[in-house]
Design a protein that fits this description.
The chain has 323 residues and is of the alpha/beta class. It has one domain: 5-stranded Propeller (L-arginine/glycine Amidinotransferase, Chain A), CATH 3.75.10.10. It has 8 helices and 17 strands. The protein has a 5-stranded mixed sheet. It has a 3-stranded mixed sheet with strand order 2-1-17, with helices on one face. It binds arginine. The site of arginine has 16 residues, from loops. Arginine binds next to loops. It comes from Methanosarcina siciliae T4/M.
């Protein structure tokens, strides 16, 4: 611990920065996580829905599984940074935020800096303030953030150094999406926007789509109600599957029941290798993926399921690199 603090001071003092950027689907090098703590005590029988939990978490089991997951990452060569080691000013906030552990939703890290979310009040309000401080202390610049307070935007997916995927979910307001798209198109070539049903099971973009490799992804296409491609000077309706196919990406469909078990939300360790809940995919889908040469590193969740999130949701990917 002492040595972490020394390190933190040093990072601040020298303003040095760690390697960052997940634009390429290369080997996962480093992540930011938040091991949940006292804040989980806020969630009880009468308020778990308010706190966006599916049930009251078994705290020791929850923390234990989170630690096991961190161990799995480390044993696969991923450097794991702990959020609270890099937060000073906003430490008090951490104890009030039972969803802070779902760091995936608060920021996406591109090679040009972080795309910071604006979390939806009341349950997730201000999580981005804590994450911003940590990223700052780690030396990762903020590329985009929201200034207005009358809306929310809980994240996007970075598909490459040119392409961002935005889903219009129950956790996004349309004016914030438009603001995001117009700002980010100065840095990225295109934004794929898709409207999906406003329901908890589709709360974030990772619930309907994710890449396993540059040429392979899992998606739940029935949720794609309308998809548009935005570039600096045009916007047009597209067929998502056909557009991705044109770009050389095949989509393996998941079923309604798999989508509901977070099938599309996994952590690529490297291109073609994913860490995933062992409860998310049916045998047939696993077989299809094995046929494609995909390796799945299974993780069995019990207590973690109470939070309604996947391993991916618990993981803010900081750096990926192709060898
Ligand atoms: N990217 C995700 N699917 N995150 C899941 C977040 C779960 C969290 N309890 C919430 O409802 O906000």
């Amino acid at each position: 611990m002492g040595c972490q603090i020394e390190k933190l001071k040093e990072e601040k003092k020298t303003g040095s920065s760690i390697a960052y950027g997940c634009d390429e689907l290369g080997k996962l090098k480093s992540v930011l996580v938040h091991t949940p703590g006292d804040e989980l005590n806020l969630v009880n029988e009468s308020n778990y829905e308010h706190w966006l939990y599916d049930e009251v978490p078994d705290i020791s089991g929850y923390v234990e599984e989170h630690r096991q997951y961190q161990g799995l990452l480390e044993s696969n060569g991923v450097r794991v940074y702990e959020l609270s080691d890099h937060v000073d000013e906003n430490r008090e906030l951490i104890r009030k935020m039972p969803n802070l552990t779902f760091l995936h939703d608060t920021a996406v890290i591109s090679g040009k800096g972080a795309l910071l979310s604006k979390m939806r009040p009341p349950a997730r309000e201000n999580e981005e303030v804590v994450v911003k401080e940590a990223l700052n202390n780690l030396g990762i610049p903020i590329l985009s953030e929201f200034n207005g307070s009358k809306g929310f935007f809980e994240g996007c997916l970075l598909l490459s150094k040119d392409t961002i995927f935005v889903a219009d979910t129950e956790r996004h307001t349309y004016p914030f999406i438009l603001e995001f798209i117009s700002n980010i198109l100065t840095e990225f070539e295109e934004v794929i926007y898709t409207r999906i049903p406003k329901a908890r099971r589709y709360m974030h973009p990772d619930t309907v789509f994710n890449r396993i490799r540059e040429d392979l992804a899992l998606a739940y296409l029935p949720a794609f109600e309308e998809t548009c491609l935005f570039t600096e000077d045009s916007s047009e309706r597209i067929d998502f599957k056909a557009y991705m196919q044109e770009k050389g990406m095949e989509i393996v469909p998941v079923s309604d029941s798999e989508q509901n078990r977070l099938a599309c939300s996994f952590v690529p360790l490297e291109s073609g290798t994913i860490i995933h809940y062992d409860t998310s995919l049916d045998r047939d889908t696993k077989k299809d993926l094995a046929g494609e040469g995909v390796e799945i590193i299974p993780f069995h969740p019990e207590a973690l399921l109470a939070g309604g999130g996947s391993l991916r949701c618990h993981t803010l990917r900081l750096c990926r690199r192709k060898k």
